[in-house]
Amino acid sequence: MNYDVVVIGSGPGGYVAAIRCAQLGFKTAIIEKYDALGGTCLNVGCIPSKALLDSSEHFYNAGHSFAKHGIKLDNLQADMAQMIARKNEVVSQTNSGVKFLMNKNKIEVHQGVGSFIDKNTIQVLDKEGKTSQLKTKYTIIATGSKPSTLPNIAIDKKRIITSTEALTLTEIPKDMIIIGAGVISTELGSVYARIGTKVTMIEYLDAVIPFMDRTMGKELQKSLSKIGISFKLSHKVTSVVNLGDSVEVKAQDSKGEEHTFSAEYCLMAIGRRPYTDGLGLDKVGIQTDKRGKIPVDKHLQTSVEGIYAIGDVIDGAMLAHKAEEEGVFVAETLAGQHPHINYNLIPGVVYTWPEVASVGLTEEQLKEQGKAYKVGSFPFRALGRARASMDVDGVVKILADKQTDEILGVHIIGPRAADMIAAGVIAMEYRASAEDVSRMSHAHPTYMEAVKEACLAATDNRAIHI
Predict the structure, then answer these.
(1) Stretch 46-74: mean pLDDT, rounded?
(2) What angle do CA 133, 323, 91 make, to 5 degrees?
(3) Most buried among 93, 218, 249, 356, using CB within 10 Å?
(4) Mean pLDDT computed over 307-319
């Protein structure tokens, strides 16, 4: 079987790369080790977690805000099994969509584990133990990532679990300890806290979502505390033990004092690691760095000519949309085009409620760089639209160059921040100033008015509604 391009991995980076290659006239194949296409994102990541986030949010609102809207309910109950069943249905529909796209674009799918025999030959080992070989001119590695753990903690997938298992629990836990307070932690913590689980997050650093702008972390911690999540920041986890029907977690605080926590489950959510196991990289002379990532050049080509890598296996944020951009970039590079990616303008999103979204530089990064900047902010509480929907928590924060007024960072925590951040990406892609955005008409009443007001605030403190 001869191909122009073989893609290993069918997550968002892989399947998008395959589609773009096919569109550009390359005979393309994709290899996927699991039965379903879509990778982590579609099966045990982005899509199922958002399905559960929406279900749990509806339940929480039914119990806490519907009465205020004049909607009265009796005997409200959370049916966790049904939530999981709906989640599974959403995943199945999305899987089918990817399969349809493969057929539509005449991309041949090979189920099994792909590994290099040499730079132009890839072996596929299926689940029945049968092997086949694919000949290819170019290969794109898009094998994604797996959950990380701490060196002294063994994940047993029973009581000490990862995000994968947390998406399949069919009974509501009484309590849960989450190690980490980043994106995965706060999203899944939200799901369980909303349906009645007592959630405690233990974070090594001194902030929630510590790698985003610190204002966002402070605001998110306030909001999540309102739904009952407790935080133990600046705590170093030293041990996690499965006691049979519960878990015991020990951690040291910043003073070195040890604390013991117990719960039905411990969710390990400290991030993810590149997944290159079984690829046979050594057979083609590709070495990973100390973090397990594959080094690539500016064209995303590895040290071996004709072999490219994208997404979570290379440097940069582990985000599905970043992988998609890289997949298109490689396909168009192979076709002799001149694509570009501005990594500074890859937005990051946390799908809690309120949502958090960010693009560009944080205030901490600007301070570290010694760059003169100005800040404009506007609270959602001051918006008529937010009061109408009872979504008043959050703020829009605009960072702009002090001399030129060019927008350097947009940070939003509030309702529909995940959708609103696209406006920030567009503005920054075209190097707009805060005044440029503030002079554009924004529909009233909308959440986007907060962006305009924050830009007005950054432009000589001209915000109108505060």
Answers:
(1) 97
(2) 80
(3) 356
(4) 98
Give dist(CA 378, CA 464) in Å, integer: 10
On the 0-12 / 13-18 / 19+ scale of CB atoms within 10 A, 170 is: exposed
Q: Looking at the predicted structure, is the pLDDT value of residue 82 above 90?
A: yes
Distance CA 439, CA 420 (A): 17
Q: How far apart are CA 180 and CA 271, in angstroms?
A: 8
Tokens of 419: 């959708």
Residues across the chain: 466
Nearest C-alpha neighbor of 465 from the set 322, 452, 406: 452
Give the separation between CA 373 and CA 409, rounded to whole angstroms: 10
Which residues are catalytically annotated? Answer: 444
Distance of CA 344 to the CA centre of its chain: 16
Token digits for 310?
A: 């994208």
Helix segments in 65-141, DSSP class H = 80-104
C-alpha to C-alpha distance for 207 and 337, rounded to whole angstroms: 43
**pLDDT tens-digit readout, 245-277:** 999 999 999 999 999 999 999 999 999 999 999
Q: How far apart are CA 20 and CA 331, in angstroms?
A: 6
What the chain holds in terms of domains, given with CATH numbers, is: 2-146+273-343 (3.50.50.60), 160-270 (3.50.50.60), 354-458 (3.30.390.30)
CA distance 167 to 52: 8
Contact, 209 vs 186, CB < 8 A? yes
Mean pLDDT of 184-198: 98
Q: How far apart are CA 225 and CA 134, in angstroms?
A: 53
Q: What average pLDDT does range 392-418 have in this prediction? A: 98
Q: Which residues pair with 202 in a beta bridge?
A: 179, 232
Q: 107-139, pLDDT tens digit by residue?
A: 999 999 999 999 999 999 999 999 999 999 999
Interatomic CA distance for residues 27 and 21, integer angstroms = 8
Are the CB atoms for 332 and 18 separated by under 8 Å?
A: no
- Extract the tokens encoding 82: 């049904």
**pLDDT reported for residue 319:** 97
Average pLDDT, integer, range 202-225: 98
**If you average pLDDT over residues 48-77, what whole number do you get?**
96
